[in-house]
What does this fold into?
Amino acid sequence: MAKNTFAIFEQIKPLEKTRHIYTVSELTQDIKLLLENTFTNIWVEGEVSGLRRISTGTLFFSLKDNHSLLKCVMFATYTQSLKFGLKDGMVVICSGRINIYEKEGSYQLYVQEVEPKGKGSLFLALEELKQRLEKEGLFSAAHKKPIPYLPSRIGIVTSLEGAAIKDILKVLERRFKDVHIIIYPVKVQGETAKYEITQAIQEFNRFNEQVSLDKRIEVMIVGRGGGSLEDLWAFNEEMVARAIYRSRIPVISAVGHERDITVADLVADLRAATPSVAAELVIPQKEELYKRIDNLLSGLKAALLSLSEDLQQTIDELSYRLSLSMQHIMKLSNRQLEHTIKKLLILNPAVQITQHIDRIQDLSRQIYVCLSSLIKLKQAELLRVLEKLSSLSPLSILARGYSITFRLPEEKIIKDIHLIKRGDKIKTKLHKGEFISQVLEKID
It folds into this structure.
């Protein structure tokens, strides 16, 4: 850097010998040219000050130390690659080039990369995301779903080219061959990896909505082999974490080696140290199951044997007590025996049944008498109602000499003389019978 600075002054010395008058623009352009050719790719450390972002995404800020201040601009093209949030007061290291802003005649640093001092940008971004998701409750144990025991269908989201899928399949094959495995191949590294992993998790959940219960995926393994922080970054992406959190299928995260803990590990329902461990956690070894069944059977046999022995002892004790009791009864005197027989006669169910039968018959007679009396009362009440209805019946009125006249053919009752005219046919109903006549004359 010092050599380049001396070169600048060497180019300026001849200007002192020959008088040349610059315009402001000329001088600015020459200085700009010198700066562009000299400070093309530099790193500058300083404290961020006066940070502001405009609508296009471009950042304007300054880097300062105890003695100086340097204006900086970072265009949207580069701000999109920032892995952490830039803030005032943050000490950072910026990479870029020095150039002149001709309109103001001031030099500034055109920033292309920013790293926080002491921590990498990926590490800082990861810490910020973890804190935010933890506040939202994505890591809470209350949201963890239980992993089913001995699932019949397992979904796997990983790359077909890595060692992870081989390790998982090898363990599953060794532990239990009858399990049904569905693999959704994805990229686990690179720019598109986060989208593919997210889509795979969502597709498995949509698949479960479209099939019957016996064909649904019961648990999902999401992971890859080990690598650097950059290699594992797809499993630290927010969209992947939220896809795991929203999954209705329990998710086992199996990312990297035991020392690597990603955001996906923290959100998942169960974290496995490696892909192989994930396979061991999801499927118990068949030999272990056989051993467990044998142990249970042995325990059951022992319990049955112990129960049988206890029952036999109880039977023996009861038999002995029964024998003593029978001997005692036989030694009772005839008087005691007769007294007992009398008590038995009193308590004899046949005697009690006879007594209850008599009681039932007595109650039946009482019910019959009550019902007969009630029926007579109701019959008398019914007769009174019928007589009242009969007195109000039109037929009763007819029986007293009245009649009802209808206009034919609709047989409408004639209540007013104006409802008929000369020549109309009418029907008259008497108490007994009816007759038809014709109107010869009307008298109002």
